[in-house]
Amino acid sequence: DIQMTQSPSSLSASVGDRVTITCRASQGISNSLAWYQQKPGKAPKLLLYAASRLESGVPSRFSGSGSGTDYTLTISSLQPEDFATYYCQQYYSTPPTFGQGTKVEIK
Amino acid sequence: EVQLVESGGGLVQPGGSLRLSCAASGFTFSSYWMSWVRQAPGKGLEWVANIKQDGSEKYYVDSVKGRFTISRDNAKNSLYLQMNSLRAEDTAVYYCARDRSGYGDSRVYMDVWGKGTTVTVSS
Question: Any CB–CB contact under 8 A between A93 and chain B?
Fold first, then answer.
């Protein structure tokens, strides 16, 4: 199985900050990467797929990049509603596997 | 409105069984792979199983192979997860999710999620 490692595990940031979360796969995944946002007590929400494609309805302040084994989720200007936990997930091979999550907290 | 609604969770003793259901609406259920994903208390997400549109292919995470069975009834727009020989480590919120296939096969990400149903395995 492909292992996904996110960093950091948590971060504190202020409204308006630029935030970057990194996801590393244990082998190359050819941009087969999705990012999700999860708020407490709620289901995950798909943000991006194919590493950089924005899901319909997701604000353009969210963006993704990367290649090979290393990928990044960037929030260009953090908004109050963005405080949540973010997960990456590879779908290059079955089983699909998730990173351990990055919790974005208010500074 | 596209919607997934899970049911069937509850408290069960170790070694017991439980059947989860997921009712789909607002989209053509028979056109999509479907998955179950779980989240243990305070932990991250773990994909459990998925099933092809016609039910002909099923895949499982190693930790549930031989104990859990995924199935679907396209006539009823419903997805199921039969869970046998339950263990304490199966305690989690179980989400039903609609799959979007990146390669036209079992390699999927999830674009629609239900709100989840809670399974607690404890004596």
Answer: yes
Model confidence pLDDT, tens digit, residues B28-73: 999 999 999 999 999 999 999 999 999 999 999 999 999 999 999 9
pLDDT of B102 strictly over 90:
no
Distance (Å, rounded) from C-alpha B11 to C-alpha B116? 15
Identity at A15, one-letter amino acid code: V
Q: What is the pLDDT of residues A76-87, one digit of tens each?
A: 999 999 999 999
Cβ–Cβ under 8 Å, residues B18 and B11 = no
How buried is B25 (Cβ within 10 angstroms: 0-12 exposed, 13-18 middle, 19+ buried)? exposed
| Coil, helix or strand at residue B63 | helix
Q: CA A62 to CA A86: how far, in whole Å?
A: 12
Chain A, residues 30-69, CB within 8 A of chain B, namely 32, 34, 36, 38, 42-46, 49-50, 55
- Nearest 5°: phi and psi at B74? -65, -30
Is residue B104's pLDDT more than 90?
no
